[in-house]
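Q: How would the C-alpha cells look for this protein?
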Amino acid sequence: MKPLPIPVNGSPSLLSAEQVSDLTGLSVETLAQWRSQRRGIPYLKIGRRIRYDLTDVQAYLRGCRVSVSDPQERRQE
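A: Here is the predicted structure in C-alpha cell form.
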C-alpha cells in the first residue's frame, strides 16, 4: 500500500483509482464501473487520467459508517 499524499497549503490531494481502492477496499474495476454508471465517489478526469479528491473519498467513507446502539440501551430489565 502506497502512502497517501498529504495536502499542502490547503490544496486538495488527488488520489489515483489504485490509491482509492487501497483506502476503501473497493476494486479498481468497481470504481471503473461506477464511473461509467455515473455513481459512487465523485472523480476528476484530467486529460486521460482519473483522480479522486481525498475529501470526496473521506465523505464517501463517512457515508458508509454504520451506527450501532449501546448494548446497555438494548437491555430490558
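The longest helix spans residues 54-63.

The CA atoms of residues 33 and 49 lie 16 Å apart.

Upvote if useful.
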